[in-house]
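U., I forgot to send this yesterday:
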Amino acid sequence: MTELHIAVDTGGTFTDIGVRRADGTLAVWKVPSTPDAPDEAVLTGVTGALEREGAEPGQVTRLVHGTTVATNTVLTRTGARVGLLTTRGFRDVLAIAHQARPSLYDNTVHRVPPLVPDELIVDVEERLSADGEALIPLREEALADAAASLAALHLDAVVVSFLNAYVDPRHEQQAVAHLRAAGVAPVVVAATDITSEMREYERTSTAVVNAYVQPKVSSYMGRLATGIEEMGVGSQLWIMQSNGGLLHPRTAATHSARTVLSGLAGGVVGAANWARHLGLDKVVSFDIGGTSTDIALIRGGAPDETTSGEIDSLPLRLPSVDVHTIGAGGGSVAWRDSGGSLRVGPHSAGAEPGPVSYGRGGTDLTVTDAHLVLGRLGTDLLGGHFTLDREAARTRMDEWGAELGLSAEEAAEGILQVIAATMARGIRRVSVERGVDVRSCHLMAFGGAGPLHASDLIHELGMESAVIPPLPGIASAVGMLDAPVRHDFARPVSDFADLPAVFEGLRQRAAEEMRTGFFDTELLVDARYLGQSFELTLPWAGDWDSQRAAFDELHAERYGFSDPEAEMEVIVARLTATVGQPRIPQELVAGVEEGDVGKRDVWIDGAWVPTPVLDRASLAPGRVVEGPAILNQFDTTTYIRPDQQVRVDEHGFLHLRRTR
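Result:
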C-alpha cells in the first residue's frame, strides 16, 4: 500500500492541500476556505485530495496542518474574556505598554487597545525584588479577596503575572494554585508557564494572548482531531507553529500562542530548504496569498528568527520565524483616499464575496481583477475548476477608471503599480533595513499570486533573480512536510559560568516535554553590551572569549559597528530541541518540449501585445523562455516581462532574470 504525506495550509481565500507520494512526486489540491469553521475546509480538502489520488485515509502516514485560528482570533477580537491578576501598583502594564505612538505626528491615531480591559484587572499585595527576594510576601488572605473579585467577573481565563516572577515564579505558582482551587475561571495560568523571560510588558502580553486564543484554538484542535480520526487517517496530526517546527495538538491546545504565525511559517521553512538545495546565499522569501504578503530574509539557508515578535501590535515573547507581513494580496481592494489618490489594501475582499471576477457579489476591485483585465491572468484557474468573470471585472474597471479619468487598462495598471510599490517597501524592510543589499538577494516567489508579481519586483528592486518553486501555490503546505518537531526553552541567567548547569536543566525539561530522549539540541544565548536595551541571539560558544568575539562580529553585521571597549553581558540561555523527520526527496516529472499552447493579448507598456501562453508542466529542464510570456499551471500563473527570461533547472525550479 502506497504511503502518502499530506500537508494542509489554511489561507484567507483558499485552503491548500499538498500531497507527497512515496516516490517523492507531488500533487496539489485547493478548496475555498471556510472562515467560520476552518476545520470543514481542512476535512473537505483532505477528502478531495485522497479521492483525486485514488487513495484511502489509512495510507496517510504524515499529516501536517498550518492554521490561522489563533491569528484571526486576535485580529478580529473574538477571543476569550480574560482577566489579569498582577502586582499592586502595576495594573496598567498592558495599557502603558512601551509608551510608543503608532504615528508620532498624527494625534488621531491610537494604539490598539489591550486584550484585557481595566475592569477585568485585579491587583494584589506582593513583591519580589529583581534578584528574587520576597520583599512583600503573598498572603492567603489577600489571595482570597482577589479570588472573590475575579470570580465575580465571570471570566473564561485568568492570567497571573507578577513583577519579577521570571526570576522566581513561586508567587505566581502559589496564586495559580489558589485560584484554581477557588474555581474562579475554567483556565488559570501563570505567565511564567508561557514565557519565563524578563520584561514585564512582553511577558504579560504573551501570556494574555495565549489565554485569549486558547479556548478557540483548543476547541478547533478537538474538532479537527475528531474529524481526522473519524475519517480513518492513520497518521498523527501535527500542527505547524510560529518557530518553523511542529507541535502536538495537545500542546497547541494549551500553549496556543505558539501557533499565532502557524500559517506563514511553513512557506519560510520550505523556502529555506530550497535555498540550501539550490545553493543560494541570500534569499527573500516572498509568499503572496489572497489577503496578505509574508516576507522573510533567509541567509545561508536559514531564516532569520526572532524572540520578540508581535501580532496586531501586541508583543509575543516567543521564538518565531522573523516574518514581515503586509496587507497586500490578490484580494487587496483598490480605493481612493480623501485626497483622491489611488490606494490598494490593506483591507481585502477575502473569499466571500471575493474580487469582482469571482462572481459572488463582490463590487470592490482587487489586484486579481487588475491582473485579469490586463490579460496577465486567464479566466480558468485550478485546472478549470475555478472560473473568473473577465467581462464583469472589465465593466467595473471601466466604471472605476472613468471616476479617475483613466481607461480601464490604465486603472488596472495603476493598481498593480501601487501594490508593487507596497511590496517593494516590505522587501526593503527585511533586507536593506538589516544591512543587506537587496540587489544581492534572490526573490523566492510563491503563494497563489507570488509568480504574478515576481517579474515586476525584481525589475523594481534590481534583484539578482526570482526563483519560483515547482508548486508555488502550495509552497507553504509543501514546506511543512519536512519541518521537524520542535520545542524551545529559555531561562534567565546572571552569570556566564552558570550556563552549563542551566543548559543541563533545559535539556531535562526538553526530555520531559518531548517525551523522548532522542532529540537534537541547539544551545543559544541572548547577549548585549552593558547598558543596551535589546539583545542579539547567537550560538553558545562555550567560553567567554569565543562568545565575546562571536557577539562583536554579529553586532557589526547587524548594526554596522562593534564596541570592543564595552562590557558584554549574557542574560538568557536558550535551548532548541528538535526531532527531525525522515526526508523523502522531492521528485518531479520532467517536462517534454512543446511549442506554445496559445497566445493571449496582454497589456504591456501601453499597448495590447499578443503574448505566448505555455503550460509550465510541458517545459523540460534547460528550457529558456524569452519574455514576454505567461506560464500556466494548476496552482498559479507566472508572468515574464519583455526585458526578462526564465530558465527551467534540472529540479523544475524557474529562474527569472533580467536580460537588459
